[in-house]
Amino acid sequence: MPHIEKKESGEDFLKSLGFPTITVHDTFTHFDFLSPGRRVLLIGPMGSGKTEFAARVWRDAAIAQKKSERVRAMTSTGMLDRRKVFFIRSEIDSSRFQDYPDDALCYRGGYVRCGENIAKIRDSFGLEEVLKDNPEVGTYIIDEASFFDERLAYVVRNYSMEKGCMFIFPTLILNFRKDIFNSTARLMLDIATDVIPLTAYCEHPDCMDSAFYTYRYYQVEGKECPALYFDPLIVVGGDKIKDGSLEPNYASRCDRHHFLPAKEYTFFTLKPLGEEAGKGNAEPLYKEIRALNEDKEHSELYRNLMLRYGSDPDGEIYTNAIIPNHIAEKALCYLFSEQNMIGETLLLKMAKDLELDTAYMSKTLSDNRHPVSFEQGSLL
After folding, report:
1. 112 sits in which H/E element
2. Residue ranges of domains in the chain
3. Which residue of 119, 166, 188, 228 has the lowest C-beta tally within 10 Å?
4. Architecture of 3-198 per CATH?
5. Is the pLDDT of residue 102 over 90?
6. d(CA 232, CA 227)
7. CA 240 to chain centre
8. pLDDT level of residue 369 (50, 70, 90 thresholds)
9. What average pLDDT does the structure give for the chain?
10. What is the pTM of this model?
C-alpha cells in the first residue's frame, strides 16, 4: 500500500516556545532525497499546484547539491544521486507551453529553467532511452504520466527497485468524467510508494469549497458548455481560456459544480446503439449520429438532456452541452476507440456517408492512441 504523506506536526515544538493551545497544521518541509526507490504520486485536479510542487522539488535539489560529500553519500545509490533531477514531459503536451523557453518546467504563475535536464518523450520506450543516457540522475519528474502507455509503470518500478532511483509523478489520476484516468493511472496507483494529495479552490465564481475534480468545458459565444460524458478522453488544453468548439477549457471544481451531462445517455442509449451496430444492425446508430450532426434537437441526446435537466436549477448549463460542434464525431470516436463496439470499416463508412469532419476525427483518434487514416477533410 502506498504511503499517504502526512508529516509530523510541529505542535510539541511550538508548545516548547510558549505558544498557547492553537490549531497547528502539518509542517511544510523540504523534499526528502535520502530514501531510495520511492515512486511518489502528486495527485489533484488541474490548478492544484502539482507542477509547482515539482518545481519546488527542483529548487530543493539545487540547494541540496551544495551540501558536503557526506550528504552526497546519503543521497546516492551507486553512481546515481537523487539530488540530480531530470524533468520529462509528453510530446503531445507541447502546445501548452509555446510562450515559454524550451527548457522550462512551467506552472501557473512561473517556471524554472532545467537546462539540459529536460526531455519530451512519446512513450515508455522514450523513457528507457532517457534513463540509459543519464545514469547519474537519481530523481525523475514525469509530468502527466497518465498520458503515456501503461508499460511505463513497469519500466519505472523495475528501474527504481534495481537502481534506487526516485520517480515523482505530478499527474491526473481522475479524468474529467471523475473516473480513473486510464489503465496507466490505475497501474501508477499500484506501483506508488507515496501519495501526496493536493487540492484547489473550486473555480466556480460562487464557491470556496475544496476542489478534487478537473472539469472540462467549452466556451461558445460566451456560454459555458460542459463536456459531454463521451467527449474524447485525451484533449490537450492549456491555461488560457479558449473560445469555440475545437479546444476545451479546464477548471478545478467541487462535486457540486462539476457538471457532467449525458452519462445516462451514454450507457442507456449510445452504447446499446453501438453494440447493435457491431452485430450488423447499424441503421439505429446511423439515425442518431445523423441527428447529432444535422439536427441536434431531434436527437435522443437532446431528449435525454431535457428530461434529465430541464427542471434542474443548473439546467441551462447542462443543456448548453449540446451547443458545441463535433458531437457526432465524438460519439463515433468514443464507440470505436474506447468501447471497441464498432470496427474501423463501419467508422470510415459512417464518416463518409454522413459527411463528418474526418480531420477532427483523425486528430482525436491519434491523440487517443487509435490512429485511423481518413480521406483529407477540413475542420468545421
Report:
1. strand 110-113
2. 3-198, 213-380
3. 119
4. 3-Layer(aba) Sandwich (3.40)
5. no
6. 9
7. 16
8. confident
9. 89
10. 0.80
